[in-house]
Structures are given as C-alpha cells and as structure tokens.
C-alpha cells in the first residue's frame, strides 16, 4: 500500500525520506481532500490491459504516453523544481521507487512514495516535484500519460501569488514559452494593477 507523510524542510539530499520528528503520516483520504491527488493500483507488467487503467483513460481522455527511465543527476535536479501542469497528470510506477512531493491547500509538503503498480493522478494546478529514493537512481521507470501539446509552469509561487493578488481572480490562465517567458492572458485592468504593484514594491520608473 502506498505511503504518504508530511516532510521536514531539510534541504539536504532530496532523495532521503525526510520524515518529521515524530513521523506524521497521511491517509489517502486526507491526501485527496487536501491536494486533489487520486491513487489507484494497476498491473505494472500489463498496465495497458489493466481494467482500472483503461477506464481512467477512457473517462478522462488523457493521451500521449511518455516513458521515463535511467534518470541521471541532472534529470533529477530538473524534476525536483516545484511546478504544476494545466492538465491532470497520470504517473504510473513500473519499476523502482519514486517520491512525489505534493503541496497541499495549507501550503505544506506531503511526500507520496510510489512503487510498481502505483498510479497517481495529480490534478492540474497542483504544485508538485519529483525524485527517487537513494537506491534506484538508474532503475526508476514510470509512464506519464497526459494531454498533448500543453505546456507546464515552473514559475515561482511567490510571483504567481502576486499576479493573483493584483488580478482579484482565483486563477490566471498562462503558459510558459520555450524561453521561459511568462505569457499571461488578462485584461487591461489587471495590467494597470500589476504596473502599480511593481512601481510600489520594486521602485521602478516607467
């Protein structure tokens, strides 16, 4: 059975388990309630014929399978950057052991350990990051089932919070270009509010 727990904020070695003292585990029900992340079990050796997997794909229309394996230190560094997607992301562990850190609605990190056969559905807009445990750096294999041609965001939460504050909206639609420039879709009122905020907080001129 999958395990999940609140992690400490020790920046050393992301691949350690990072339990708090004492450990504070999280049930699947609490994980879903505070993050929206769903958990399923599938057959890792025959997942494409697994009834649960096929039903999820049919119901949610996800498509495009990307296999991730033989992660090197640079891959892990990139994957451990906090980010979110604009679509629901499916992750199936086929081999090894991985950790998904999920930021809950109270702004705390929950670490979810996934082993072969574990399938996570991470909802769009949910901040997360990924690493593997200390023993499987070159053996971890997973599948990403996602919507095609949709970009991700690695923009820092602090800046997104500013945009939400000046817009008055709960959500802002945006995407990241290949040059990592933020493209934001909003009206002239938000542009004016953002301009005022920048002038007040960063002491810039026109």
Descriptive overview:
Pfam families: ARD. The protein has 206 residues and is of the alpha+beta class. It folds into two domains: 3-149, Jelly Rolls (Sandwich); 157-202, no CATH class. It contains five helices and 13 strands. The strands form four sheets. Strands 2-8-5-10-3 form a five-stranded antiparallel β-sheet, covered by helices on one side. The protein has a four-stranded antiparallel β-sheet with strand order 1-7-6-9. It is globular, with a radius of gyration of 19 Å. The N and C termini lie far apart (57 Å). Residues 169-187 have low confidence and may be disordered.
Q: Helix and strand layout, with pairings?
A:
Layout: E1 3-6, H1 28-35, E2 38-41, H2 51-60, E3 65-69, H3 73-79, E4 84-85, E5 89-95, E6 98-103, E7 109-114, E8 118-122, E9 128-132, E10 141-145, E11 152-153, H4 157-167, E12 174-176, E13 182-184, H5 188-202
Antiparallel strand pairs: 1-7, 2-8, 3-10, 4-11, 5-8, 5-10, 6-7, 6-9, 12-13
């Amino acid at each position: 059975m999958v395990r999940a727990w609140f992690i400490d904020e020790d920046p050393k070695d992301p691949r350690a388990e990072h339990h708090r003292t004492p450990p504070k585990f999280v049930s699947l029900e609490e994980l879903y309630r505070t993050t929206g992340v769903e958990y399923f079990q599938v057959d890792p050796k025959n997942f494409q014929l697994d009834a649960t997997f096929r039903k999820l794909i049919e119901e949610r229309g996800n498509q495009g399978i990307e296999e991730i394996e033989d992660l090197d230190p640079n891959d892990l560094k990139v994957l451990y950057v906090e980010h979110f997607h604009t679509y629901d992301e499916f992750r199936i562990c086929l081999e090894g052991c991985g950790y998904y850190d999920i930021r809950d609605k109270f702004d705390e990190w929950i670490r979810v350990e996934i082993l072969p056969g574990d399938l996570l559905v991470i909802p769009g807009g949910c901040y997360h990051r990924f690493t593997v445990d200390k023993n499987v750096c070159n053996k971890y294999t997973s599948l990403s089932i996602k919507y095609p041609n949709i970009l991700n965001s690695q923009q820092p939460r602090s800046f997104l919070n500013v945009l939400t504050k000046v817009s008055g909206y709960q959500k802002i639609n945006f995407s990241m270009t290949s040059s990592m420039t933020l493209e934001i879709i909003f009206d002239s009122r938000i542009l004016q509010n953002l301009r005022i905020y920048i002038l007040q907080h960063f002491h810039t001129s026109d």
